[in-house]
Amino acid sequence: MALPIEVVKSGNGHRTNGNGNGNGHAHLHIHESEAAHVHTHDPELKHELIVKGLNTTVVDNLEKIEDAVRTILEEVGEDPDRDGLVKTPYRVAKMYGELLEGYTQDAEEVINGAMFDVDYGEGEMVVVADIEYNSLCEHHMLPFVGKAHVAYIPRNKVVGLSKIPRLVDMFAHRLQVQERLTNEIADVLEEYLDPVGVIVMIEGQHMCGSLRGVKKHGVNMVTTAKRGEFRTNRDLRDEFFKLIGK
Ligand SMILES: [Zn+2]
After folding, report:
1. Catalytic residue among 47, 78, 140, 190
2. According to the model, what pLDDT value does residue 96 have?
């Protein structure tokens, strides 16, 4: 049985997310200020928490992250108790919960059985282009953002189209380097679909490149990962780049 969770935001006007009342299920009311105390290993409850935006892994450790942010504020010479900063550790901890929620997800859960047998026709390509993503580079924990373009040639299985952007998000919402992100997306599709070929191209603009170090603005980094037929068949690659408008 799924446990509907209502997240009640305290403050101006209670905003309620949830499945409503009166359907006979148990309800768990969690105030955001109490979120740090939510611990669960129940997979269904965990899933509900993720759906409601309360990352359970990070929620488990919210207070520790808050303490760490407070330490940073102190060590850069700030007063963490002044008005503008007093809730900053909490906000930052919660933000990491969102930006790094991929650690609480796995491909099995994301794909969730949405694979279908097809007789798609030999060599026909499925393309999902312009998938916007945001990620955090693992070297500086600064954002990199851009678009992912994914194509595969089914052997006898296809996956629901909405699942590919969700897989991109799952891997992007972990600490990453762009090259690994690209390869992980290609590998997970190869593993689950056993396609004739997969190609992933990712474009990324890295804040760590534009804000610090060489300070090059607007540099677009491009990475590709090819599996199966896309490795050897140049015509297929050309078709892919044409279809995504590159
Ligand atoms: Zn970096």
Report:
1. 140
2. 94
